[in-house]
Amino acid sequence: MVEVARLRHGSGIGQPLTRRDGVLKVTGQASYAADNHPPGLLHAVLATARIARGRVAFLDLAAARAHPGVVEVMTPANRPALAQDPDDKSVPFSFRLDLLQNDRVRYAGQPIAVVIARTLEAATEGAALLAPRYEAEPVEASLDAADVFVPEVVGAGAPGETWHGDVDAGLAAAEHRIDATFETPMQFHNAMEPHAVVAAWEGNRLSLDMPTQGLSLTQMRLAALFGIQPEEIHIRSPFIGGGFGSKLLSGPQVLGILAARLVGRPVKLVLRREQMYGPVTHRAPTRQRLRLGAAADGGLTAIHHHVRTATSRFDDFLEPSAGVSHTLYAAPAIATTNEAVRLDTGTPGFMRAPGEASGSIALESAIDEMAYSCGMDPLEFRLRNYAEIEPVSGKPFSSKALRECYVEGAASFGWAGRPLLPRSMRDENGMLVGWGLGTATFPALMFQGEARAVLRQDGTGLVETGAHDMGQGAWTALAQIAAESLGLDASRLEFRAGRSDLPNAGIAGGSAHTATAGGAIHVAGAQVIARLTEIAVADPRSPLFGAGNIGVVARSGRLVRWDDGSRSEAFGDILARAGLQEVEARGMANADPTAAERYAMHAHGAVFAEVKVDPELGQVRVTRLVGAFAAGRIINPRLVRSQYYGGMIWGLSFALHERAVLDPRTARVVNADLAEYRVPVNADVPSLEAILVDEEDPHVNALGIKGVGEIGITGTAGAIANAIWHATGVRVRHFPVAIEHIV
Ligand code: MOS
């Protein structure tokens, strides 16, 4: 634990620094992939299928090629060969891609041709001139599809079925029972920056400007697809305008690269907004049945969480919504089961707390219903059923300050004295007022990452890792860890990230990026300091000579004796005397399998919502949201608060706004734009408060980081739905909640 103790003395970790990229972004100087214009650049535009199933029978290639600005049209007939089947997904976290392998159409919005032209306008016109004709086949677009299957795994590898204890007996013995079915919609990624690529080939070397949450994985998959070495691919991804899980490698980006190969010139391809509704994954719809039993004293006797979801016809991602029921409440019997149907849509994928977001809505709503049925306050009920160990796995938690989250959140919100009965509160304008609570949970994950650290004789440092900043502030938080690990002020440190030629930092996903990349940086920095220490303590001319058994710490550019702070030496002096320009080390971090075997590791939180509902119109306004979250060590409280705000706004969006509507006749999304696919705007977002609850976790990883990116969404939507019930007495089990559900 000396490593962790050292950190408290440093300057970097725990400081509420503003984003290093903030000014660049708000002044428009930050350059995103599509801002790149290499010499000779051509523009590519996708033509996409307007049917969801069948084949492309005809494309008017002659008309498109006759356009004066069009250079080439890429179709299955002339698409450059690939070394790997696009349906091969042996690279982790990857999906089957549609890369013009044939004339089949698997979903509406699938790319069917790429038009390459001298201008964006010409490419757009060329794509319109293709005027495709199709042979269409009947489609399936409903969660009620007859062909139901039971999956063996859901999400990224969770079991499709889990049984713990005797659920039927628990339900039979219960005094109170809830049997409720919840529906959550199909949702699409609407990052401000659409998927884009600027691709240039030079022989077999590939240069890419492309937003990605996974530089190394993307490099690996592209290498496999094109039959070249990963090192021959150079990806720059300095700024990412939002990813949400969708920005691993997408098919359209590969089509841009193929287009560049075909024409032998650099090509830019940027998805249009409506083209994001198909080929870049989405969150699948769910129908979740929650059966709960509770004894007369309010103790849960059983939880059965059954999920029906949908995947595509050609791939297998299944929203793992029931996972939250494994961990949140103590019950002697818990079962989670899944079933799914195949729809003629693009493949669903990772999207903002995949599983936990949709699943916690259903669980938290059902828990609220059960609390009321037991005549208990929803907070009291949750404390009554607080899981001291993880119920399904039986493991202790590596740390769990959820009780403190409930207490601190409730105090700040003013929860005490909440009337049990719905429709009990009105404001001065006659609006119905309701208060609701939702519990937040998200696993504390970590992947393998690597970093390199250097200390130079001039007293400056360099830390580099192929990390990704998709807006969450990684570039800032990781630089803080880097500064801390080298005992340098951030102003003396160069921090490089966002490029594929840097050490592999894993993926920015699973809320695990700070733990992964930060963990690697921490190790690399510690190695550098250890080497410098070896040199100093062995040198009779150093004031640190002989400090070996006592140890030294790195602070403000100096090594300082642990026992006697007045005896210290500047890094530069140590290196100069040793005749070294610099010391350099690499560090690797990975999840500790022993910890995962012994402990359940999750971040937690409690979200309190106030809504006001117009009793005549049914219009819902969220007026307050207070979230209290415990996620281990906090690297930068300002950025973490922003992450929680963002999460809570996602939750609000889930509760009241976002929904993609699939036309059952055509399997096309009918609201594939930001006019009709609603996301909250400023006027929808109330006063937000995020409370950072102290939590120390000695087991989760070396830095004690649990991750903060996704947890905020998981408590919030349920809290809002519960508040709507408390305001109106109407239990809406269909999301997003709409006026017609209430009045
Ligand atoms: Mo996330 S859905 O792990 O980017």
From TrEMBL:
SMART domains: Ald_Xan_dh_C (SM01008). Pfam families: Ald_Xan_dh_C, MoCoBD_1, MoCoBD_2. It comes from the Bacteria. Residues 27-138 form the Aldehyde oxidase/xanthine dehydrogenase a/b hammerhead domain. SUPFAM superfamilies: CO dehydrogenase molybdoprotein N-domain-like, Molybdenum cofactor-binding domain. Gene3D superfamilies: Aldehyde oxidase/xanthine dehydrogenase, a/b hammerhead, Aldehyde oxidase/xanthine dehydrogenase, molybdopterin binding domain. InterPro entries: Ald_Oxase/Xan_DH_a/b, Ald_Oxase/Xan_DH_a/b_sf, Ald_Oxase/xanthine_DH-like, AldOxase/xan_DH_MoCoBD1, AldOxase/xan_DH_MoCoBD2, AldOxase/xan_DH_Mopterin-bd_sf. PANTHER family: DEHYDROGENASE, XANTHINE DEHYDROGENASE. This is Xanthine dehydrogenase family protein molybdopterin-binding subunit. It comes from Teichococcus vastitatis.
